[in-house]
Amino acid sequence: MTLIRSKTETPNTQKLSISLLKSLLKSKTGIVGFIILVAVVVVAIFAPILAPYDPTLINPTKMLKPPSWIEGGDPSHLFGTDNLGRDILSRIIYGSRVSLLVGISAVVLAGIIGMLVGLVAGFYGGWVDMILMRLVDSFLAIPNILFALVFLAVFGPSVPTLIIVIGVTNWVAYARIVRGETLSVKEREFVKAARTIGVKNSLIIVRHILPNVMSSFIVISTLSVASTIILEASLSFLGLGIQPPTVSWGGILSDGRDYLATSWWLATLPGLAITVTVLGIIFLGDWLRDVLDPRTER
Amino acid sequence: MIKFLIKRLLEFIPVLLIISFIVFTLVFVAGDPVALLLPEDASQEDIENLREALGLDRPFIVQYGTYLSGLLQGDFGKSFRYNSDALPIVLERLPATIELALSAMVVAIIIAIPMGVWSASKRNSFVDLFATGGSVLGKAMPNFWLGIMLILLFSVTLGWLPVSGRGSWMHLILPAITLGTGIAAEMTRLIRSSMLEILSQDYIRTAKSKGLRKFLVIYKHAFRNSLIPVITITALQTSTLVGGALVTETVFSWPGLGQLLIQAINTRDMAIVQASVFVIAILVILMNLIADLLYRVLDPRIKYN
Questions:
Q1: b vs e for A12-26, b when ≥16 Cβ sit within 10 Å of the residue's Cβ?
Q2: pTM attached to this predicted model
Q3: Among all residues of chain A, which has the CA nearest to that of B146?
Q4: Residue A78 has pLDDT above 50, yes or no
């Protein structure tokens, strides 16, 4: 894998995507994950068209209606309504937007930070590596969610803060793996050769090291989206993540907790949405790992 | 070994320093607590006076120095909500959290060891499918949601177990299962892959071919060795365990550190927040150290350097 830009690259990428597609079709869980993820993305993008109601529309005449398939259910509200008469299906549909937005953006941010730290620490070694690795140790000693809570307590909850907070607390995993890969790649012949002929360090990192750490990077990133969605939902559940009126799965769940004795669907259905989405991402990530990173054990 | 221990303990100093710096900077950025301490109609002069009295008008680095020297003496500042030192309040909550975390660990071990060993010894069987499927599901389910579902089933519907609080062992069951299954999911996967690797080694083939019973081969030869990597990785999960405990405590109103911390964050009681972060960090670091030592005891081939 090199980054030499030439005209022959196009057919190669085409071939690659065809072989990827073929292997996806062979993996049962991979294809299930792919379908789930595409479905969630479609739902998130077309939420205004798909949702039968405005997710924040309060309707005092239809409070706490059970899902339509249950006795006493209202056929116009498939998943029932909450304590303010809001439509749960619409709320879950809109909730997917926040989950994906925060999940993906936070992973991108964490990935960029982790990639930079990992490359620099692994490539330069010495005291730079030592300082950066102590920083990594410090972050490892504190649970992600605790760091996120402290950040949120200081900066106050909002979607951009949440993305930054999760990004800044989650970069450690990338940094460690990218550093490890960099350490091994940098001893390979082609890097030594590039050094010998006097290629600049920055160019060696971009042209030779980066492409080689990319596959494990993509695999962890995919799997991180799953844990980030769970982290966002947990923070919103604790009341320190997404704030109303913005709808989030963790938030709906937290609202539903007070009505557990009478209205089980309020807390059950958003949790199901989180679980299915995360399951889809894990399936896809595991398949990607098998394809891109055959060395790692499952 | 003593030398190794001292070296590892010395390594904690920079880590704790970095944590103290990050936490202090965050609290510094958050703004001073003067606004919360004084009545709303306080004059500008009152505010300035209090800032001066608390030393908040001094430069950042000086304040950090004072803060650090306080830390060394176990002084994390005063909680204005409880109107007393923050550290004792935090330490008072620690046993409840440790109780929850340890019980969750026990639950995880009870589930994960049999599942991992069984599924590896019968690869691609129904049991294996069940174990791997279960561990993926355990990872995909948010902890707090599982907790709520357990409350819904066992407390609300069946009425067998209390909904929340701490007291008898009955109170501990649901929180321990909630927190334990998440850890069990990861542990099962690890034990399975560790066992699979070891079962393919030569000494296992030798043991099998000299006619040892399958049970003996698996438990005496394979399982023991497969535990070594499992212990280290499990210890690295302490951080996940404690993080999970914070959320689980909120679900079950368990009176531990997590509950205290969430309250402190909501009331902006920064002294409690800082003390909690430190206590948790030290807990995680110590657990990792214990695992590291255990690792060396179990596998004498590993040298102390």
A1: eeeeeeeeeeeebee
A2: 0.85
A3: A271
A4: yes
